[in-house]
Every structure is written in C-alpha cells, then in structure tokens.
Amino acid sequence: xxxxxxxxxxxxxxxxxxxxxxxxxxxxxxxxxxxxxxxxxxxxxxxxxxxxxxxxxxxxxxxxxxxxxxxxxxxxxxxxxxxxxxxxxxxxxxxxxxxxxxxxxxxxxxxxxxxxxxxxxxxxxxxxxxxxxxxxxxxxxxxxxxxxxxxxxxxxxxxxxxxxxxxxxxxxxxxxxxxxxxxxxxxxxxxxxxxxxxxxxxxxxxxxxxxxxxxxxxxxxxxxxxxxxxxxxxxxxxxxxxxxxxxxxxxxxxxxxxxxxxxxxxxxxxxxxxxxxxxxxxxxxxxxxxxxxxxxxxxxxxxxxxxxxxxxxxxxxxxxxxxxxx
Length: 326
Fold this sequence. Notes:
The chain is α+β, with helices and mostly antiparallel strands. It has helices spanning 2-16, 45-48, 51-60, 126-135, 137-156, 164-170, 210-214, 219-234, 310-320, and strands at 38-42, 75-79, 93-99, 104-109, 117-123, 172-173, 181-186, 189-196, 199-209, 244-246, 253-259, 262-273, 279-289, 294-303, 324-325. The strands form 3 sheets. Strands 7, 8, 9, 10, 11, 12, 13 and 14 form an 8-stranded antiparallel β-sheet that branches. It has a 5-stranded mixed β-sheet with strand order 2-1-3-5-4, sandwiched between helices. The protein has a two-stranded antiparallel sheet with strand order 6-15.
C-alpha cells in the first residue's frame, strides 16, 4: 500500500512539476512548438553520457526502415533538468529520465503545452532505468510517432489540393498540399508530384483486385510484382526502355497496419529505375477494401540523391495515412 501511495505521489510530482494547477489548466496551456521528429531528452549530462544515454539512443535513434542510408527515427536534443522550464517545456515531444526511490513509467498528454506527448521514466538504479526503457520502447516510439504524424497532417491541412477527381474515379479522398500537382491521370491511376530541391516527391494511387496480392502466401513477392508491373506501365525512366522497379538486392520490409479503419499491408523499401542509375526509398500501403473486393494502393516515393530523406518519407506517410476509402 505504501509503495502504491508513493507511486501516485511521484506521478503527481513529475507531471505537475510541483506546481498547483487549476482544473482548467490544460485549456490555458501555450501552443507546443518544435520541428517534426525532434524530441527533447531531459536528463542529467552524466546519465546521458553513460549506459542510460546509450539505451535512449538505441530506442529513439534506431534506424528508419527502408531508407537508402541510415537515418534515425528521431533527432534528439539533450536538455539538463535545470533548463527544462519556460519555453523549453513547450516542445511537442519530450522524454524525461531520472533517479527516484521507486520505478515509474508513464506517457502523458498536454502537460506543459498543447498538443504535447511526454514520457516520464524514473527508477532507483541505472539497471532499472534501462529495463524500463527496453520494456516500453515500442510504446514510447509509437506514441511519439503518432503525435508527429498528427502534427504533420495538421500542417498539411492548412493548404489542401482539391481531390475531387480522385474521389470520383477511385472512391478515395486524400489530404495533400497545394505544392503537389497531378502529373498523370489514366482511368483509375493517379500520379501526383512535388518538386523539392535537387529532387521530387511522388504519390501513386490505384486499385488492384484481391488476387493480385492474395494469390499465394508470398505477400512481399506479390507486392513487388504488382509494383514492377505498374512501374513498367505508368512510370517511365529517363532513357528508352527504363522504368520504375523494386530494388533487386533487398526485399522490402513488410508490416500490418490500418488505414481508415481497414486492414492494410505496409511495405517499405528501395525503388530503382531499370537501365538507369536512379534510386530512392518508397512506402506502400495496400488497403483491403472488402466492400468493393479490391486493394487500394497508396504509395509514396522520393528521389533526392545524396541527401537525407527521412522527413520526406514521413510527409508522404502522413499524406497516405489521411486516406478515406469511400
């Protein structure tokens, strides 16, 4: 009972920062700030430089799947606890680590700003801190990523490109910025593009029947064949006989997820252009539309040689995850 009471007191101390807050405090919170995928790590310098820091980096700086070279999930900014005050506490995401008499872990929302996701991890020893971080790493990454996806979608929503033609032809609504343009529309196939410095960002939308992906148990192989067929038909390269294909060297990563409440296969990997030296990362969602007996394919890919592409792929993911299947 004593431990339970202590835990509740510790939770209140950590979350409220020893400040008395009125019941409507959240309504008066300042707006959060920060760059997309930047996380404030509030921790003593000594812990940051030791095994605890190594564990934090293994969680938050894990490599993003499917990119052409290694990039971390999040960019981290280490902040000593004494400096975590005022404007600094308004960062949209933070991870606060420290020593305490009892182990404590919690993910909180809108504590010092809105919207905001914070993670508190406290324990008596370094070993217990590492154990807490390791046991909850999936929840930590998932909650922070969910917050950043929502923020990216909110920014996109400020200036939307009309999608009426997609809704009419494909039965899909999609939120994407006016910076993108329609590059190709053929029957139920859409190619949408955005110019960026030294490259482009691309979106493909189309549909395939169930058997295209479900003809056997080799889902990854079936998605590769589907992508390569579409690339050959619709996405030409810079030379005669060149077109978009999936990289031969490595199979894409495959996950299961949901889009608009519907089951979807999520694949991430590297595309290349057959007979040309071009390549980059892609993200593909095959959304199962039971009512219409089809898979709706939502894909984004990036071409920007010799530069980081994490945040470009993240923007594409935010756009694709906004899809509504009508």
